[in-house]
Design brief:
Elements (H helix, E strand, L loop, with lengths): L1 H19 L6 H26 L8 H14 L3 E2 L1 H8 L3 H13 L3 E5 L5 E5 L9
Antiparallel strand pairs: 1-3, 2-3
Helix pairs in contact: 1-2, 3-5, 4-5
Amino acid sequence: MVLVISSVFFVTAAIGDIATGASDTDSSTLWGILVFFLSASAVGGWMAWANLGPRRRQVSQQELELKVLDLARELGGSVTVVEVASDCGVSVSVAKQALDRLCGHGVATPELTDAGLMVYRVDFLPPPALP
């Protein structure tokens, strides 16, 4: 943040000197200073945003597995790795790991469709009958 603040000072001074022409410094030097400090200000702003900006919260394995089960229920009982990744906001490798864990627990079963697409089928128990 200090980089941005100090750069803004020099950018303002260079613009003032270029606009008024009252400086003893050569015009090309002033333009060089302006470009340099504008660049430094942009880099400093990006660094501040990257460090202070919004952060994506890490999802626990349990939360991800629950999200996968909810998604499977919404989609009729089967999901693909890409559907899980895009809907749950995780990488494809994390989505695959979550689906493989569900298979390991006996909750999901991998199936290959006729088109060669790997889907994971989750068989849900039917809801209890109302009395």
